[in-house]
Recover the amino acids of this structure.
């Protein structure tokens, strides 16, 4: 089955700085990679996703890059704000079937 | 659009009782729903995939007789934790997906505490 690893597990940045979270996956058949943000006690919310036919996708301050050859993808948040503080999960799946989640990154943005 | 609800949000029960959790897609038809379990400060662990009108597919290590899943309609899936024990205490979250789509939309979760 698919195995997704995520680093770092915790990340603290100053407000305004950038944050980068990295994930690797094991199954080369995976072709859909969403990122979710989860605030304490709340549901995961999709923030961005990327498909394997695209190398990079951007949505305002959030971007995701994908390297299919190396089987890794990354989340980039620029100009971080305190409200970006949350746990972020990456996931990998094949055509939206079972999602296999990374272990999560707890991001703290220090005002 | 794409709102998923769960009921109840909180449940406390005695050991040995069964608990049913409902997951509903409110504004779309969900051909597939997924059930996850999340321990404090940990990731979401997929328990099973539920397709409308067919038997659920369970992940390795998940007891299907312990966690009964029913997906009777395109907007409702239920998870029943049978003969619950304290080790079943956890945060259970469902998600739903439209036919042909990849994105999963998550419910708000159900916190189960078994005494």
């Amino acid at each position: 089955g698919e195995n997704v690893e995520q680093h770092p597990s915790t990340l603290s940045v100053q407000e305004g700085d950038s944050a980068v979270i990295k994930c690797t996956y094991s199954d080369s058949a995976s072709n859909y990679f969403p990122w979710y943000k989860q605030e304490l006690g709340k549901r995961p919310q999709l923030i961005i996703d990327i498909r394997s036919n695209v190398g990079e996708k951007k949505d305002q301050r959030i971007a995701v890059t994908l390297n299919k050859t190396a089987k890794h993808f990354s989340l980039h948040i620029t100009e971080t704000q305190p409200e970006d503080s949350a746990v972020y999960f990456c996931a990998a799946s094949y055509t939206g079937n079972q999602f296999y989640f990374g272990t999560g990154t707890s991001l703290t943005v220090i005002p | 659009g794409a709102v998923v609800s769960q009921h109840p949000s909180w449940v406390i029960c005695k050991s040995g009782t069964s608990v049913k959790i409902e997951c509903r897609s409110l504004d779309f038809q969900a051909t597939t729903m997924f059930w996850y379990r999340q321990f404090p400060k940990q990731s979401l662990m997929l328990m099973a995939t539920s397709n409308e009108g067919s038997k659920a597919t369970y992940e390795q290590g998940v007891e299907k007789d312990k966690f009964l899943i029913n997906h009777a309609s395109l907007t409702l899936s239920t998870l029943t934790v049978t003969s619950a024990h304290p080790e079943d205490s956890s945060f259970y979250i469902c998600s739903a997906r439209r036919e042909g789509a990849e994105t999963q939309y998550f419910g708000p979760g159900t916190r189960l505490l078994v005494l």
